Automatic annotation (TrEMBL):
GO CC annotation, single: Golgi membrane
Localization of this protein: Golgi apparatus membrane
Family membership noted in the UniProt record: Belongs to the glycosyltransferase 47 family.
Exostosin GT47 domain mapped to chain residues: 136-452
Main location: Golgi
Designated name of the protein: Exostosin GT47 domain-containing protein
UniProt keyword terms in alphabetical order: Glycosyltransferase, Golgi apparatus, Signal, Signal-anchor, Transferase, Transmembrane
Length: 502
């Protein structure tokens, strides 16, 4: 690989080298994650080992038996904790990433056929190296406690598909990141499916009270208390090397500790009723879960709303990917650059305040800025994206929308219209290179803004969209640099950012 690719690789490489020399000459070795983002320093806030008494409370919905491990008894897991070895391993990974940044180069792994380069990355060297270190070293332990459908089982298609696909990949026999023993693990995965909980536990929903998050909170709290009582791993880090993945939007409200009020997301009613029947304007009382318990816990979430308790330094923004039944993505109907007659395209219901504004201004009004609440039957959504230069991606009931990923798949430059949304993989990717961000207040100016982008700039953005695509593609089994690797890499970065105290 090295031989054949080095011809093209070298000139670009030297150019990058120069650019990086200029931009990172002030590099401080204590802050390597700064090269990805304005990220926290090496050592995250000291974990506080003063513990409070856990409050386990089970109601009729949860039975203690659901936490009994089925196939694998706790007894088979021997006590041979070796956090020092894990920390040494992580130290080597940190050193390699630092070296890549300082030397403006990386150690090419033989098997890699793809090397990130170019401006879509905040720092391509650092990213390549930390991804390589992850592939080389990372071991994830997926807790085995609990039984489907609430645990070990998530949705594999539709709007929350990424939740189930990720979990399924982690649990798959072929998953190369799978730790054979939890003592090997750098990171611990709690295979809870919030979508599953909402689907199976929150039934029937007849009154607003039925939306109360208590049951979800108790379920997660009980799960954590169970594994924390059984194994040493949770307590030794206070959960800082533990994560869960949820595309369903209930997690934020359930495990926050600084937001006093919580919305009912009407999305939920869609899920539960299969229609757009709305909840209520008044939020039900949310009894907050034990805040200490969730203080360091990594939540990988589609609903990365920073004004709702999403913590960019600890949590991870998960892309929402709509999967048709039995497919890993939409058909590829993207057209070439010169075959995109539509300037901007959107079709979707007026969910949430942003889309209401968008539809109010643009619905069925302009042939270049095509905004529809409903597409005519003979118009194909995916095809329309493939024929448009820009695809509008306004937030709906929650900040994330499957449109960002759909646009990228269709070679259509995403136009992000949102407030307080932390975009996926922004530790690594520079979204402003391949997307346009339009503040909600400038929705009336969309046409002027997009028309004002010169062809040459559009051409570059379009090319970058095509290049960034691989990071949003879903493969089963997962492949290097694809969306599952990107999600894991985001968690890996956070793990690199703190040390277990011995
Ligand atoms: C740890 O928690 C205890 C009790 O909540 C508090 O008094 C103490 O200041 C905390 N220590 C640190 C380092 O945060
Ligand atoms: C960068 O590393 C590669 C091997 O990974 C090596 O072949 C190349 O010479 C290095 N380039 C520089 C400028 O050091
Ligand atoms: C990201 O791209 C923008 C231009 O689109 C540029 O101004 C900015 O410096 C870039 N940020 C990084 C970290 O490379
Ligand atoms: C972890 O801490 C909790 C709360 O203090 C305690 O009940 C549990 O026994 C601890 N787990 C282990 C394995 O010591
Ligand atoms: C759009 O057309 C493609 C290819 O003809 C097809 O596979 C897809 O299902 C269509 N999408 C919709 C939403 O009808
Ligand atoms: C983000 O959270 C804030 C605070 O709860 C809320 O007002 C806003 O509607 C949320 N954004 C979206 C798009 O849901």
């Amino acid at each position: 690989m090295v031989g054949t690719s080095s011809f093209h690789f070298f000139p670009v490489f030297l150019l990058l080298l120069l650019l990086l020399l200029l931009s990172f000459s002030h590099f401080n070795s204590n802050q390597f994650t700064q090269v990805f983002t304005s990220f926290s320093p090496f050592r995250r806030e000291e974990t506080n080992h003063t513990t409070t008494t856990p409050q386990v409370s089970l109601d009729g919905v949860l039975s203690t038996s659901m936490y009994k491990s089925t196939k694998h008894k706790a007894a088979t897991i021997k006590k041979k904790s070796n956090p020092e070895r894990i920390e040494q391993d992580l130290a080597k990974a940190r050193a390699a990433v630092l070296k890549a940044v300082q030397q403006q180069n990386f150690t090419l792994e033989k098997q890699d056929t793809f090397v990130p380069r170019g401006s879509i990355y905040r720092n391509a060297y650092a990213f390549y190296q930390s991804h390589a270190e992850m592939v080389k070293r990372l071991k994830v332990w997926t807790y085995r406690e609990g039984e489907p459908p609430l645990v070990h089982n998530g949705p594999l298609n539709n709007i929350y598909a990424i939740e189930g696909q990720f979990m399924d990949e982690m649990e798959s026999k072929e998953n190369p990141f799978k730790a054979r023993h939890p003592d090997q693990a750098h990171i611990f995965f709690l295979p809870l499916s919030v979508t599953g909980v909402v689907h199976y536990v929150y039934k029937p929903i007849t009154t607003v009270r039925d939306y109360s998050r208590d049951r979800l909170q108790r379920l997660v709290t009980d799960y954590i208390n169970t594994v924390a009582a059984k194994y040493p791993y949770w307590n030794r880090s206070r959960g800082a090397d533990h994560f869960m993945v949820s595309c369903h939007d209930w997690v934020l409200c359930s495990f926050v500790f600084e937001v006093s009020e919580c919305r009912i997301l009407r999305h939920t009613s869609e899920l539960c009723f299969g229609s757009d029947r709305s909840g209520s304007e008044t939020a039900p009382e949310v009894s907050h879960a034990n805040p200490q318990l969730f203080k360091y816990f990594i939540r990988v979430l589609c609903n990365a709303n920073t004004s709702e308790g999403f913590r960019p330094k600890i949590d991870v923004s998960l892309p929402e990917i709509y999967l048709p039944f039995g497919k890993l993505g939409p058909p590829d109907l993207s057209r070439g650059l010169n075959n995109r007659p539509v300037l901007a395209f959107f079709a979707g219901s007026p969910h949430g305040y942003i889309r209401k504004i968008l539809l109010e201004y643009w619905k069925d009004k302009d042939s270049e800025v095509q905004v529809h609440a409903q597409l005519p039957k003979d118009v194909n959504y995916t095809k329309m994206m493939g024929q448009s230069k820009f695809c509008l991606c306004p937030s709906g009931f929650e900040v994330a929308s499957p449109r960002e990923v759909e646009a990228i798949y269709a070679g259509c430059v995403p136009v992000i219209i949102s407030d307080n949304y932390k975009l996926p993989f922004s530790d690594v990717l520079n979204w402003s290179q391949f997307s346009v961000q339009v503040p909600v207040g400038k929705i009336p100016e969309i046409k002027t803004i997009l028309q004002g982008i010169p062809d040459s700039k559009y051409l570059k953005m379009h090319k970058r969209v095509k290049r960034v695509r691989r990071h949003f593609e879903l493969n089963r089994p997962a492949k290097p640099f694809d969306v599952i690797h990107m999600v894991l890499h985001s968690v890996w970065l956070r793990r690199l950012n703190f040390r277990l105290s011995p």
